[in-house]
Specification:
This protein is of the alpha+beta class and about 400 residues long. The chain has helices at about 5-35, 90-105, 120-130, 145-155, 160-170, 175-185, 210-220, 220-230, 295-310, 395-400, 405; strands at about 45, 65-70, 80, 85, 115, 145, 190-195, 205, 230-235, 240, 255-260, 265-275, 280-290, 310-315, 320-325, 335-340, 340-345, 355-360, 370-375, 380-390. Helix 4 packs antiparallel against helix 5 (about 160-170) and helix 4 crosses helix 8.
Length: about 400
């Protein structure tokens, strides 16, 4: 039966309307598919691993007690002998110096106030000299700066100048000793005891561990660090003084103080700067109760050589090493690679860990920074940026039109 005019008209309307809908859908589909942003790409991370080193066992110098540490590194590298407080001898003068400098600070290049020697200082010199103490000559009326008094006390280990500078700074020897004890308490040295400022009294005692920390405090004072590194000096009215620390300038040694008590033995609080690769490693160590200073010095030389060998330069990552990968749904990949090489100088078998941070990306150009890798060894850290090694480009219209379910996140 032929269609009526009304039916033909209705079918034409349906066809036109349906075609319009298809056209509109197509017009919407094309730009949505072609212009929609691709989903974020998540990185697949491969965390670098650094092989541990071999544990180093140090042969410590002979003596009643010894210890050595790297400044800034928690704990000691090694410790041997007694953990008890032992006689410090003239290492005491470092505490005297720190206490005086706490009350009368000196900058690295400052000389400080002038101090005039008196008849009392001359009498003190004669009294200590007659008792066999380590002293330096003094004349009434001669004027020294604070720095010169410290230099005579520390370089020549002059006990009379330790008392003289204390009398100037605090008014009396008793007041100086009280100030020294207060300084020790304030700075957390429970293992150190002082009864007088020169070290002549064997009751001035300290543990090896606390003396290492004392050495670090001495190096942290700019004026004191300069003075303890002086090998020779000529001071007016005293003459040429030569440091009793014969290791100065040898193997990086740059301080700090010797000590000797006949009834106990030879002591040395020492510091050294070791060069390992491009790094400077500041060390502080102590030996108490060695038989002689010659034996002590030989032991310290050996110890420093061992410590130098115990540090190692560890390559962490090379420039261009891949740490993460971005894989696209359109079957391309781009690596996140180290932007530069990195290494660390580490002690012995100190473990090294790595932490990777890599961000999600859409499309990105080669060289775009997308994260970082941080290596940690003890208190040391080094961070290396991660850059894209390849472009992450749009997949193009062909892939987009053929994969709408991926474009619109339906799978």
């Amino acid at each position: 039966m032929p269609l009526t005019r009304r039916q033909v008209y209705r079918r034409r309307r349906i066809a036109v309307f349906g075609g319009t809908l298809v056209l509109l859908a197509g017009l919407s589909y094309l730009p949505l598919t072609l212009l929609a942003p691709v989903a974020e790409l998540e990185p697949a991370v491969t965390t670098p691993e650094v092989a541990p080193g071999t544990a180093v066992q140090l042969a410590m110098p002979a003596g009643a007690a010894s210890a050595i540490s790297a400044v800034g590194r928690e704990g000691t590298l090694a410790q041997a002998g007694s953990a008890d407080a032992l006689p410090m001898a003239s290492i005491t003068k470092i505490i005297t110096a720190l206490t005086v400098l706490d009350a009368h600070p000196l900058g690295a290049d400052e000389v400080g106030p002038s101090v005039t020697m008196t008849a009392a200082d001359v009498a003190l010199y004669r009294r200590l000299d007659s008792g066999g103490a380590s002293v330096a000559p003094v004349k009434s009326g001669v004027v020294y700066t604070e720095r010169e008094l410290l230099e005579i006390m520390l370089i020549d280990s002059a006990g009379n100048y330790a008392i003289t500078i204390g009398n100037w700074a605090f008014g009396s020897q008793d007041a100086l000793v009280a100030a020294m004890r207060s300084w020790l308490d304030a700075h957390g040295f429970p293992g150190i005891n002082v009864v007088e400022p020169t070290g002549q009294d064997a009751r001035n005692t300290a543990t090896a561990a606390d003396l290492v920390r004392l050495g670090e405090a001495a190096l942290a004072n700019p004026a004191l660090a300069q003075i303890v590194a002086i090998t020779k000096i000529d001071i007016h009215d005293v003459g040429k003084l030569e440091n009793s620390n014969k290791l100065l300038g040898e193997g990086g040694v740059d301080g700090i103080k010797t000590g000797t008590l006949n009834a106990f033995g030879a002591n040395l609080l020492f510091s050294a700067d070791l060069t390992v690769g491009d790094a400077q490693i500041p060390l502080v160590g102590v030996v108490l109760g060695a038989a002689t200073h010659a034996e002590l010095n030989a032991g310290v030389r050996s110890l420093l050589a061992q410590v130098t060998a115990g540090y190692r330069v560890v390559p962490l990552i090379a420039a261009g090493d891949a740490v993460a990968e971005y894989a696209t749904p359109w079957d391309t990949t781009a690596d996140a690679v180290a932007a530069s090489a990195a290494s660390l100088v580490v002690w012995s078998d100190t473990p090294i860990t790595a932490t990777v941070t890599a961000q999600s990306i859409h499309l990105a150009d080669r060289g775009t920074e997308v994260g970082s890798v941080t290596f940690t060894a003890g208190t040391q850290t080094v961070t290396v940026p991660l850059d894209l090694a390849e472009d992450v480009e749009d997949p193009g219209p062909g892939w987009r039109l053929g994969h709408p379910e991926i474009i619109f996140g339906m799978r």
